[in-house]
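Continuing the batch. This is chain 6 of the set; chains 1 through 5 are on the previous pages. Same settings as before, nothing changed between runs. Recording input and output for traceability.
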Amino acid sequence: MLELFLVGIGTGNPDHLTREAEHAIRGADLVLLPHKEGDKAELAQVRLALLEQLAVGDERIAHFDMPQRRQQGDDYGRQVDEWHDAIAQRWQASLATHLPSGSGRVALLVWGDPALYDSTLRIAARLGLAPQQVRVVPGITSLQVLCSAHGIALNDIGAPFLVTTGRQLREQGWPAGVDTLVVMLDGQRSYEQVSEPDAEIFWGAYLGMPQQLLLHGRLADVAAEISARRAEARQAHGWIMDIYLLRRPGMSA
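Output for chain 6:
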């Protein structure tokens, strides 16, 4: 029987791998390893470095190229569906090539945790596997690493927080009734459009990695610096993964 392990690997720091993740990767007959075009090739190298540390040889790694998502038009939902279909087809082609018997243990390394703002589970559902054939190994999230790096608590005492995306923040604004926001997947610097200049921002990029960047302060005071550092880092590395927490003034960190 084919078993698919979706393994959360945190932010790329080998020390963030759980023992469960290590066991799942070491025990895999095949590891699916995606490659993105252009300057994002470094992302595959981070995964390869993790595999090398776990003594996973090249003969157990199936490399495949990630398809590009269509970005023309305003049908965002349809674009994502098409993209996920294409990724699932790449997975199936790799499995057919490397595990022609249709059985074995397959691992796919997922940034952060497979359950938080990641579509690997949705893509896996397209393979038609039974529920017991898909195993999820939780991982450390960038949200956890961000709070740890800044030395702050995620929530205020007895208060809720909201995890959202840059797109939602731009289109819907700061939601009522919530004083702490964690914003992910923000390639458009949506913090620049927040109309609460006294809010605090705790920003981090490449969390847990040697090139980690951190900035904190009053939003109106540091937003421009964050944007500048972000642009410089993206130019230097060809890619950037960042996340930030916004908190209204008067709330405890």
